[in-house]
Specification:
single chain; alpha+beta; Pnp Oxidase, Chain A; Nucleoside Triphosphate Pyrophosphohydrolase; 2 domains; 7 helices; elongated
Length: about 300
């Protein structure tokens, strides 16, 4: 490439980078809340805890954010697509429509965000037609659900495979399970007589094999669970059985007959099903590295495909 790039082509190439979606919010000196949709959010540093977001100089709220002492970053879930659209507009009544509450620094925080970060102004960097706002994280938290994604100028969500999973489960010899994680530990069912371990599933011992049954498995207990996205799919060529594992999150105490096992402490030799054991070993390895991929294949040989 020589000279100035064609802005259209450059924008198209940049849009191949898939991101999440956030709302950046603050308050004016007179208390008026201001906010806009941004996908330029990036984590920068853990020590000190810094994040950044890029604001177009043309944005109506650019001046307010450039001078704000505090602001919040709110990571949207797939249920919050409307909120993204609202805050990407120039409407002045955004905070009358979207539910929010004041955070610790009195900065607006969007209700039910997947994660939120309350920040103090740390730096403002001049960057062409944008300014880079660097914030120091003062407070943060996280909710549950699946993220709202943005790719090639359009939203995407990760849950579209759910009806497909149910359709497969209705028609074949299928097992659906979930690797539920809580603070670096995985939930496993413990066989009372032998001490054997297994990932929670429906379809093998339960009559109904569908997502609702999986989601309701611990309804009668104090454990709250949330399914996130498909993590592994494989077919046992000998039996024709299809196994689908979701990745999920859990919070609360382990119900009777189950236990939480730290990643480093999973007694893999007590997991009898070799395909389940392999899947979980891979899960733990990837969780340590911080990257996840979807596994597809049979019980012996599989292909790993990136999520998304
Ligand atoms: C998915 C998405 C991501 C966006 N990311 C950014 C961004 O990172 N920075 C930015 O300045 N504008 C971004 N925008 C555009 C602003 O949200 C939009 O210009 C908005 O009107 C700004 O609000 P304001 O004019 O009230 O300040 C994005 C819009 C969408 C839909």
């Amino acid at each position: 490439m020589t000279g100035t790039p064609d802005p259209k082509l450059l924008r198209a190439a940049l849009s191949q980078f898939a991101t999440g979606v956030t709302i950046i919010a603050t308050k004016e000196d007179d208390g008026t809340p201001r906010g806009f949709t941004a996908n330029s959010f990036t984590s920068v540093s853990l020590d000190p805890p810094l994040i950044l977001v890029c604001i177009a100089r043309s944005a109506a709220s650019c001046e307010v954010f450039s001078g704000a002492r505090h602001f919040s970053v709110n990571v949207l879930s797939e249920e919050q697509k409307d909120i993204s659209g609202l805050f990407a507009s120039r409407r002045t009544d955004k905070f009358d429509i979207a539910p929010w509450h004041p955070g610790r620094t009195d900065t607006p925080v969007i209700d039910d965000a997947l994660a939120w970060f309350e920040c103090a102004h740390h730096d403002l960097v001049d960057a062409g037609d944008h300014v880079i706002l660097v914030g120091r994280v003062l407070d943060f938290g996280q909710g549950k659900g699946r993220p709202l994604g943005y790719f090639r100028g359009a939203y995407f969500t990760l849950g579209l495979e759910d009806p497909l999973v149910d359709a497969v489960a209705r028609n074949t010899n299928t097992i659906i399970g979930a690797v539920y994680e809580q603070s670096g530990r995985v939930l496993l069912e413990v066989e009372p007589d032998t001490g054997d371990l297994k990932v929670p599933t429906v379809g093998d011992t339960t009559a109904s094999c569908n997502l609702t049954a999986l989601k309701q498995k611990y309804d009668e207990t104090q454990l709250s669970t949330a399914i996130e996205f498909v993590y592994a799919v494989f077919e046992d060529n000998r039996t024709g059985r299809v196994t689908i594992y979701y990745r999920g999150q859990a919070s609360g105490p382990a119900p009777a007959g189950t236990g939480f096992f730290a990643f480093d402490d999973i007694p893999f030799d007590r997991i009898r099903d070799s395909a389940m054991r392999d899947m979980l070993e891979r899960y733990v390895g990837e969780a340590r590295q911080g990257g996840f991929a979807v596994y597809m294949g049979d019980e012996i040989e599989g292909v790993v495909r990136p999520v998304g």
